[in-house]
Amino acid sequence: MIYKRKTTMNLRKNITYLFFSFLSLLAVTACSDEDDAVIAGGKGYLQLRLFAEGTTRALNDMADAKKIELELDCDGLTVVQTLGLSSVPEAEGAGLITEKIELLTGDYQLMSYTIYGAVKPGKDTPEELAYGYPGDLNFQIAQGHLTEIDVNVEATLRGKISFNLIKDLSNYQEEMDKVNNASTRATAKDETLFQYDQIAEVDVTYKMGSQVARTSQAKVYLATDADYFHTDTLSLVAGEYTVTEVKYYDKKRQNLLLVTNPNIEITVAPNVLNKQDIDVTYPENMKAISDYMALYEIWKAMDGPNWSYAGETYVAKSNWKFDGRPIDEWGNQPGVQVNADGRVKSLDLGSFNAKGDIPEALGKLTELESLWLGKHDDDLYETESVSYKLSKYSLYHKGVDLRKNRLSIAREELALRHPRRKASPMCNQKKQAYTYAEHATYDVNKGDIFNGITSIPTTIKNLQKLEILYIANGRITNLPEELVELPNLTDMELYNCKLEEFPEALKKMQNIIALNLSTTSIEGDTDGKQMMEGLNALFNSSKNLQILYAQECGLTEFPMGILDAENLVMLDMTDNKLTKLPQKENAEFAPKFAPIQAFFDNNLITKVEQFFCGTNDIEKFSIVSNHIEEFPLLFNQGAIDGKYAAETIDFTDNRISKFPEDFKGIRTETLSLSWNPIGEVKNGVSYFPSAFAKATENGQSPERVSIQNLETMNCNLDSITYTDGFQYFKNLQAWDLSGNNLRYIPYKFNVETFPYLTGLNLSQNCFSKFPIEVFNVQRLYKLYISSQTDRDGNTRCLKEFPSGMDQVFGLRFLDVSGNDIRIISEEDFPGILMEFNVADNPNLEMTIPSSVCESIVKGTYMLGFDSDQYILGCPALDLDINK
C-alpha cells in the first residue's frame, strides 16, 4: 500500500497522518473471513463488487480481469493498492469481487481504478482492460466493520495505437546543408546501418481531457522496409488524448537516453489499429553529433573525396559518405568505431590515402581510445611454406583487448618474426600454435609508405582517454610534445617513419608500456647515436616499459638505460649494427634488466658480458648470425639459481670456438650451436667440446644443468668421444649432429648415458659402417643417417645395411636415403618400423616381406623409395619393374 500527501497541512496534522500511515502500512495483511471481526487500533475492512454493463466486449473484458489498482483519498492522504479479483458466483453477467483491504477508520473517496488482465506472450506487464474515475463515490470505514461498495464498470470502446518514432534533426540542419553538394566515392553496395542510438523501450505519458495523466510502457522495433523505429501496440479507451512526455530507454532499461515533451494531440479510434508519428528531437550540442561533425572536418581537410580504403576490415576502395545522410549516421563510416553512447572510440585514418596535416578537429573526439595513423599490414611472416600475418588493428576490430592480452600477443608476434631455422623432424620442440595470427592472403613490400599524413595537431592533448596510438608507413617526421599530457596512452607504434629528430615527447612519456620503433630512422643519424641517446632518455623517464621493438633502427651502441629497465620483458633489437651487449661498470651481479624474451639477430656482436642481463626467467634468447667467438657466461646464474629452464637459447651462425673456464652450464629445452666451430682441436682432430664435462666438475649437478634438444649441425666435428661430460645430457631427448665429419659412435653411447634420447640425426656425416651402437639407446625412436660421404664429400661411403634390425624394439623411423646401400634381404628387412626411407640408393636390391607389403597397402607402414629401384616382394608399389 502506498500513501501520498496531496496538500500542505499544519505540523500537527502532518504528524497525525504520518503516524496513522505508518500503522496502516504495518496493518495491510490478509483479513479474517469473519465480516464482523473486531480490529484493535481503529481499523476496518473494504471490499468492492464490480459489475459490467453494456456491450459484449465489456463483459468479455471483465471475464479476463485478474487484478484491480485502486486510488483512494482520505482527507488529503492518497492510498494506492493493487488487489486480486475473483468472480461473484451469484452475480448475473460478469460480476467480480476484490480481496478485502484493511484501512484506518475514516471518510474515503474512490478517485480512480484500473483493471488489468493477464501478461500476454511477448509482454512484460499485464494488459490494461479498463479504468474509471468515479469522482463522487464516497464511503466510510468504521472500526471493526466491513464496508462493501458496488462499482459499475462502464462499457467502453477501445482501440489500439502504435507510435512511429521519427528522427528530428532540425537542430543540425545548417551543418547538414553544408555537405549537400559534397562529392564522395561510395562503395558499390552502401549498406547504411540505421542509428539512433540504442532505443529499445519507451514510456509514453498521455491524458484524456482533464483526467489524471497515465503512463504506458512499450517496446521498440525497427519498422519493416523503413528507416525508423515504432512501438508495439497499446490498448486505450477510444477518444482524444494529449501525449505530454516520452522517455526513451536502452535495452533492459539500464539507461534513460532521452526525454521529450511533444504535447501532440492524438485520436484513438475504436476497434482499429491507430498509428501516430512522434518526433524524436535531438537536443542541441549533443556530444556524439559533435564527434561526427569533427569527422567531417578531418575528412574534408585531408583530401577526403579522393580517399580509397585499402585495409582488411571493410569493403576495398570504400570511402566516408556524408552527402544525403542524416547527421546522426555520420559516425557509421569505414574505419570508425563508436561506443554505447555513439561517441567515436576508434579512428583509422592510415588505411585511407589521407594527405596532409590532421586538423585540430581531432581534439574534439574526447572519447577516442585508439588512433591508427598507418597501414601496418606488412606484418607478414613465413613459417616453412605457410605465411601468416598478425594485424593488431584487425584484432582490435574483432574485440580483442590489446592491452589486456599485450604479452601473449607479443609472444606470438615475436615467434612469427623469428621462426626457428628448420630443425630435424626428430626434434621434440612443440609446434607453435597461433591464437592471434591468421593466414596471409597477400604480401606487401617492407618499408613502403602507404599514406600521406604529415603531422598530428597539438589538440591531441584533449584525448585524455587515448590508450593506443599507432603511426606507421607515413610521412610524419615528428610528434607533438602534448602527447606527454595523455595519462592513458600506454601502447604506441612509430613504425617505418623518417624522423627529423628523436621526439621530445617520447623522451618524457612515463606511462608507455609497449613501444614499436622498428625500421624508423632519424635524419643524419648515420651512427645511430641520436636513436641510442633518445632511448636512454626514454628509459630514464619511463619505468613501466615492458615491450620494445627496435629492429633496423641503425643502432651501433647498446642503450645503457635498458640495463636499469626492470619491467622490460620483451626486447627485439634485430638487424642493427650492435657490436657488444655490455654490462654496467663494475658490475658484480646481474642488472635489473631481466627479459623473458630477447632477440639480437643479424648484428655485429662479438661479445656478451656476463652481467648483461638476468636470465633466471628467460624463455627465449636469440643472437643468431653475429660474430661471437666465446660462449658467454651470461647463463651461469640461471643454471645455478633459475627456477625454470629456458625454452630456446640460440647461438646459430656465430664464430664460437671456445667456452670460458668458469662455464657452469645452461638449463634450456633447446640449445642451438649450429654453424659454429665449437670443436676442440687436438692433433688435427675436432672433438666435441669438453666444457660440458667441466661444467659438471664445477659443482653443477646434471639435474640442474640440462638440455632437452641439442642442435650442433655443421660444427665441423670429427668425434664425439665419450667423456664424463655426457652426464650433462641425462635429460637429452633429441640431438642433431648432421653436417659434421663423424665416422663412429663412442662405445658408451647407451641407455645409461642417454636414458631419454628418442631422436638422433647423423645425416651428412662420414659413416662407412652403420653405427649400430646407437641401438643401445633403448628409447631411440627416430634415426636419420642419410647422405654419408667421405670427407671430401664426393663419394658415398655407407654401403652395408645391418642385420637384426627387428631386435631394435623401440625404433619406429629410419632414414637411410642418399647412401649407396646395396642389399637389404627379406630376413634383414626392418619390419618393426612404421616409416622407412631408402630413396636415392641407386644400387639397392631389396626384398619386402609379404606381411610388410600388406601393411604398406593398408597405410600402416610408410616406405620412401624411387620408382627405378630394384625392390621385390610388393607388387602394389609403383615401381618400374612392376609395370
What is this structure's SSE topology?
Layout (H helix, E strand, L loop, with lengths): L1 E4 L5 H17 L15 E10 L3 H8 L3 E8 L2 E11 L7 E4 L2 E4 L1 E11 L11 E5 L4 E5 L4 E8 L4 E11 L4 H5 L23 E7 L6 E9 L6 E3 L2 E4 L1 E11 L6 E5 L3 E5 L4 E9 L5 H15 L34 E3 L5 E5 L6 E3 L12 E4 L6 E4 L2 E4 L2 H6 L8 H12 L20 E2 L12 E4 L12 E5 L18 E5 L2 E2 L4 H5 L5 E3 L4 E2 L6 H13 L5 E3 L20 E3 L7 E2 L15 E3 L7 E2 L11 E3 L13 H6 L4 E5 L17 E5 L7 E3 L2 E3 L3 H7 L9 E5 L22 E3 L22 E3 L20 E3 L28 E3 L7 E2 L10 E3 L7 E3 L2 H9 L3 E3 L5 E3 L11
Give a verbal description of the structure.
With 883 residues, the chain is of the alpha/beta class. Among the domains are: 2-153, Domain of unknown function DUF4458 (Immunoglobulin-like), CATH 2.60.40; 158-281, Domain of unknown function DUF4458 (Immunoglobulin-like, Sandwich); 287-376 and 448-458, Leucine-rich repeat, LRR (right-handed beta-alpha superhelix), CATH 3.80.10.10; 380-420 and 433-439, no CATH class. The protein is built from 11 helices and 52 strands. It has a 19-stranded mixed beta sheet, with helices on both faces. Strands 1, 2, 3, 4, 5, 6, 7, 8, 9 and 10 form a 10-stranded mixed beta sheet that branches. A hairpin with a 2-residue loop joins strand 41 (680-682) and strand 42. The protein is elongated. Mean pLDDT is 83; it is low at 1-40, 55-59 and 181-195.
Shape estimate: elongated
Strand content: 25-35%
The structural class is alpha/beta
Number of helices: 11
Mean pLDDT: 83
Q: Could you name the CATH class of the domain at 2-153?
A: Mainly Beta
Tell me the span between the first and last alpha carbons: 100 Å
